[in-house]
Amino acid sequence: MNGKYKAFWIDDDGFVEVIDQTKLPFIEETVLLKSADDAIVAIKDMIVRGAGVIGNIGALGVYLAVKENQDLKYIVEKSKEIRESRPTAVNLMWAVDIMLEGILNANADVNLLELAKNEAIKICDEDAERSLLISKYGCDIFGDIMKKKNKTSINVLTHCNAGWLAIVDEGSALAPIYEAKRRGIDIHVYVDETRPRNQGANLTAWELTQSDINHTVIPDNTGGYLMQQGLVDVCIVGADRVSANGDVANKIGTYLKALAAKDNDIPFYVAIPEGTLDFEIKDGVRDIPIETRSEDEVKYIKGLNKQGVVEELLLTPLTSKAVNYGFDITPARLVTALITEKGVCKTDENSIYKMFKENK
């Protein structure tokens, strides 16, 4: 793909241009990343977000470090800073480690900048290929559900954003939805708003609008009622980290959707590429680190006013405190299966290990 993807791309000068996701859906702007520090800011401030794209920009951030300074001590230090820029999404650590291993093991006569650029593009290209495979496996599941229910249409509920803004170049949870559109399936998506940053209402809804996919934005607390009323056929979400035993870290609120799905006998799938798996963590509920973000994300909301101007408004009493956990953990027992580039995998340690370790 030569370093060009829907959510970001390498420009003619070798810098990285990204869609500023904090401005969507009201303003479509890009930000130019010229240094490793720029990449760190983009990741920390959620200019880019989504487990896969965080990893991609992490890899490209290492490339930008090499572009700045080919001293190995500098590259290692910047790589460490990039790696630590967000704690929950394991794709970031995974991608930076791959980049650093290739750089540190390179022969003395190799063009280090070219090596770093090619390695970063390879990581992104492989993610795009994984995304396409996830789209096909996931859409096959949709077909099976419709056949089982004797339906010619399907209602899908998703949480947060796991489309091409999050994982190049189709997404994870949204990838099967895009494939359904290509296959001519009558699909409708219930889009959780995903407070407090509203990634569903702002980003998922924006993506689905771009592809002319039928969808309805709902408050986060509505999903359980829809499931009770038989209005949801399947839930599908992405993830930022999945432990070796199948516990899933995803945007806060995912656990509640999984509980409601279990209570109403609705399948709950998690779509991920391999890089989201963390085999070092055996108990996700206990050991996956959960990022706590600024309380201002809870207290303030951004939107378009009646004059067509984007503004930020305070929702709470000024002196009220708020807590802002970015993620929660859905135990493996509540997940029907993982949808991966290698196929559909049960959420137990033996199945995950067999699919991703024994078949290497």
Task: Characterise this structure.
By secondary structure, the chain is α/β, with parallel strands linked by helices. It folds into 2 domains: 8-126, Up-down Bundle (Four Helix Bundle (Hemerythrin (Met), subunit A)); 133-358, Rossmann fold (3-Layer(aba) Sandwich). The chain contains 12 helices and 16 strands. The chain has helices at residues 36-44, 51-68, 72-83, 90-104, 112-149, 175-183, 199-210, 223-228, 254-263, 284-287, 296-299, 349-358, and strands at 8-10, 16-19, 30-33, 153-158, 186-192, 215-218, 234-237, 241-243, 248-251, 268-271, 277-278, 300-304, 310-314, 327-330, 337-340, 343-345. Strands 6-5-4-7-10-15-16 form a 7-stranded mixed β-sheet, sandwiched between helices. Strands 11-8-9-14 form a 4-stranded mixed β-sheet, with helices on one face. A hairpin with a 4-residue loop joins strand 8 (241-243) and strand 9. It is globular. The protein starts with 7 loop residues before the first strand and ends with a helix. The model has no long low-confidence stretch (mean pLDDT 95).
